[in-house]
Every structure is written in structure tokens, then in C-alpha cells.
Design brief:
single chain; 115 residues; Arc Repressor Mutant, subunit A; 7 helices; elongated; disordered C terminus; WH-like_DNA-bd_sf; RNA_pol_sigma_r3/r4-like; RNA polymerase sigma factor 70 region 4 type 2 domain-containing protein
Length: 115
């Protein structure tokens, strides 16, 4: 779900919120899961949830209707949620900032959470 990406998003102190690359997941489990997804799902979630590109821009680039994009986003987020649950039980429960699986200890200590 969108919450998995949004809850795990940070704003990098180096780039700040005005940057093109607005945020990255606070836990590397999310990035690991995205990297292992189908390329179309990974690209869609990266553009929409990490880069915060407008939905209409993404739909136009993909030559799909807004409703088709909604379906694709829903499917991609379900796949992300499933994959996160498989690689990290802590993050799979939504406790990203408590993750100790080894994917992301450096990220937990250097950034602040953005809501």
C-alpha cells in the first residue's frame, strides 16, 4: 500500500524537500524490495512514491488512462507489500524505523522521518 512507501520515506538532509529526488525509503528493505520487483512495477513506484511525479504526467508518459494507472499502482503496491513481508518481517508489519534485519542500519541513524 501507499503507506509502506510513505511511512518509510525520509527527506535527505543533503537534498532537502525542494530537490528533484524528494526522498528515499528510510529502510533499505523497501529499496531492496523495489529492486526485485517487475521492472514496470519498480519504475512506477519509484516515479510516483519516491520522486513524487504527478500521476497525470506518469499516465501520459505510459500512454494510459488515469484509471488504468490507478490499477497499475494498486497492483504494484500489493506486490511491494508482499515482497517487503517476505524479506523483512519487521518492515512487513509496518515498523520500518524499528528494522534491524541488516538492510539499513546506516539509514536509520542519519535521517529524519517525513510525513
Amino acid at each position: 500500500t501507499e503507506a509502506y512507501v510513505n511511512e518509510a520515506r525520509i527527506i535527505s538532509p543533503e537534498t532537502g524537500p525542494a530537490s528533484e529526488d524528494v526522498g528515499e525509503p528510510a529502510c533499505s528493505c523497501v529499496l531492496s524490495a523495489i529492486r526485485e520487483m517487475q521492472p514496470a512495477h519498480a519504475e512506477l513506484l519509484t516515479r510516483l512514491d519516491l520522486r513524487e511525479e504527478p500521476r497525470d504526467t506518469i499516465a501520459a508518459d505510459l500512454a494510459v488512462s488515469p484509471s488504468t494507472l490507478r490499477v497499475r499502482v494498486h497492483r504494484a503496491r500489493l506486490a511491494l507489500k508482499k515482497r517487503i513481508s517476505e524479506i523483512c518481517p519487521t518492515c512487513g508489519d509496518g515498523r520500518f524505523m524499528q528494522c534491524d534485519c541488516g538492510h539499513s542500519p546506516e539509514v536509520h541513524n542519519r535521517t529524519e522521518m517525513a510525513f
